[in-house]
Design goal:
There is one protein chain. The protein is of the alpha+beta class. It has two domains: about 180 residues, no CATH class; about 100 residues, 2-Layer Sandwich (Alpha-Beta Plaits). About 75% of the residues lie in helices and about 10% in strands. It is built from ten helices and four strands, in the order ααβαβααβαβαααα. The two termini are about 25 Å apart.
């Protein structure tokens, strides 16, 4: 009976129902896009954090014993999670692999030209500065490539994106609530006489309010499904282009299970938001 009543309410004012579903769709489309981009940005940062964060190139005069002594000095700090030594011959192999499509470059380079190096992974990103100071003070070090600046820049961009995204989503959610409150309020006003009759024949407050709460939840359901699937469809459409642009950065593929879990969570939130907005309208008009 409750669903039949809700269907009758929606059929009587289809344009209001479409408006409510549309604003909810826009809200949860934005939420879906924001959530997907957040997941990708976290993977992007994790990828760079998992790379050697500090690469130290040595002078040609540095011996393996000198380098080993520096490695032990770094390990003694307790701030390194791994240290990998790359010899001149190994550096040449890496160079050849990276430039295998260009024979001219391969002919010009030998192992004597390339420096030996160590690749350092820190326990925490905050430890990179102190580790860099240790190696920069060594007389056998030629150059230090410090990737903390890259990671810090990515983190700052991600944090800025989150703040802007959350602000936009917050505004859209407030607008959604206000739209549903207005629409449900109009419907309650139109059916004021009907509601009075229901009260006179002994209908409980819950019986009167339930259809309106259900209607709000349906708006949320429709909006989250439309917005969520639209965002997922756009994501899959542009995924090949994004993956091609990022090339070797391993943040794809994004598991369909994650996206379905995200959609399920959005449906629950959207239905709760729609029902909450309707409840506020009911409190206002059915005191």
């Amino acid at each position: 009976m409750n669903l039949n009543t809700v269907a009758k309410y929606i059929r009587r004012s289809p344009y209001q129902a479409i408006s409510a579903a549309a604003i909810m769709s826009l809200t949860f489309f934005a939420i879906s896009i924001f959530a997907i981009l957040t997941i990708l940005s976290l993977r992007f940062i994790s990828y760079f954090e998992s790379r050697p964060q500090l690469t130290v190139f040595f002078k040609d005069t540095a011996t393996r014993q000198d380098i080993s002594a520096l490695e032990k000095q770094l390990e003694s700090t307790g701030k390194t999670s791994s240290i990998s030594y790359v010899s001149k011959d190994e550096a040449l192999k890496i160079y050849k692999e990276q430039n295998k499509s260009d024979p001219i470059l391969l002919d010009l380079v030998t192992s004597d030209i390339l420096p030996a190096s160590i690749e350092i992974q820190a326990v925490q990103a905050e430890d990179l500065t102190s580790l860099a100071q240790v190696v920069q003070g060594s007389s056998i070090v030629e150059q230090v490539v410090f990737q903390k600046d890259i990671v810090d820049t990515l983190i700052s961009w991600t944090n800025a994106f989150r703040r802007v995204g959350l602000a936009v989503i917050g505004i859209l959610m407030v607008v959604s609530v206000l739209v549903i409150i207005t629409i449900i309020g109009i419907k309650i006003t139109v059916r004021k006489e009907e509601i009075e009759i229901m009260r006179l024949i002994g209908a409980s407050n819950w019986f009167i309010r339930a259809p309106f709460l259900t209607e709000g939840a349906i708006y949320g359901l429709a909006g989250s499904v439309i917005g969520g699937f639209s965002a997922i469809g756009i994501f899959y459409y542009f995924s090949p282009a994004i993956e091609s642009f990022l090339k070797g950065v391993a943040i794809f593929p994004l598991s369909p299970i994650i996206l379905l879990e995200l959609l399920a969570l959005e449906i629950i939130v959207a239905m709760s938001l729609g029902a909450f907005a309707s409840y506020l309208a009911v409190l206002r008009y059915l005191k």
